[in-house]
Request: fold
Amino acid sequence: MTTEYYTRMGDGSRFSQTKDEIYEDLKTGTAIAADLAGVSELSADELDKMAEIIMDPSIFVSVERGKEVALTMDGGTIRIDADQGNSGCGIPASRLIGLMTHERIFCQDTIELGHIDYSFKPVKPIVSHECQNMEVIQQNTIVPVFYGAMPNMGLYYTPDGPYPNPSDLMREFKIEEAMESIDNSVEHLTRDMVWIMQKLMGSGSDGVNFDTAGAAGDGDFLATLQACEQLRAEFPEIYIEIGMAGESVLGMHGSLEYKGKTLAGLWPHEQAKLCAKAGSNLYGPAINTNTGKSFAWNLARAVTFTKAAVLESPIPVHVNMGMGVGGVPMLETPPIDAVTRANKAMVEIAGVDGI
Reply:
C-alpha cells in the first residue's frame, strides 16, 4: 500500500498526500513563483529538505539547534484581551499585560504597542493617550517596544476619508481624477504617519512597525517609504520595520515611483531594496496563501519568493508568518503542524533572519 502523509490545504483543512503528490506540488509551487518574479527555482536538494519537513510524523517541528532566529511581531499583544469573533483570546487584561505576557512568557524578542483599530488614521485623535501608554509600557518592559499600525490608505477615501474613492472613479473611467485622489491621499497619509511617530518617539518609543504596507496599492507603499525616509532623517537611531501586505505591489495608480523605481508590480526581492533605500532596518515579505492549493504548493511558492528576497536584501529579512501568509493556511487560528513546518522551512531553506 502507498504511504500517505497527513498535511493541509491552504484553508487549513486536513487531508493526505503521497510522497509523489507532495513532490509534484512542491515543484509546481516553486516554478510558479520563479516565473512570476523572475527568480531562481528551489534546487532539488532544497525540495528534498522541504518534503522531509512536510512528511515529518511529529505534530510540532522546530529548527535545528544553532539555527534559532529572532522573533518580531505585529499586533499580537492586543489579541490577549481582544475578542473580535476571530483569533482574539478575550481574556480580561490590558494592553500592558498583553505586552508583558509576550515579553516574559511568550519570549518575544520585540513587542509593540498598537491600537485596537491598528491603523494610523484612527490613532491621530487619541495620540496623547497612546503616548501615555507608551511611556508606562517602557517603564515596565526590557525588550524593544515599537509602535505598530497599518498605513491603510483606504481610510483616506470616502466614506471614511476626505478624498474620492479611486475605485469608484475608475469604474466611471475618470482615470486622471482617480490618480489625483491617490496622490492627495499619499501626501496626507505620509504627513499623518510622521506626525504620529514624532509624538510617540517623544514618549520613548524604540521605533515603528509599518505593518501591511501596500495594502491599498502603490500609493500606500509610497507613503510608507516617504514616512520611513523622513523619520530616519529626524530620528537617526529609530528602528523601522516595514512589513508588506502581499508578494506583489498592486498598481492602483500605476505611475508612482520612489527613487526612480516604479512601485507597481514589485516583487519581494525588489521591495526589500527600496525599503533599505528609504532607511528601514527590517523588511518583512508577505506571501499570500492560495486556499485552494495544498500546503506543499503554498510553502514552496512562499519560500521561493522569500529566498530571493533574502539573497538580494541589504537589510535583515523577517518574513511574515501568520494566517494566510508565508505558506501558513488561511485560518483565524492556524494549525500548529503547518505553522511550525512553514517556520522551519523559512529558516533552514529560505535563510530568513527572523520571523
Summary: Strands lie at 4-8, 14-18, 111-113, 145-149, 207-213, 239-244, 257-258, 261-262, 282-284. Residues 175-201 form the longest helix (27 residues). DSSP finds eleven helices and nine strands in the chain. The CA atoms of residues 26 and 47 lie 7 Å apart.
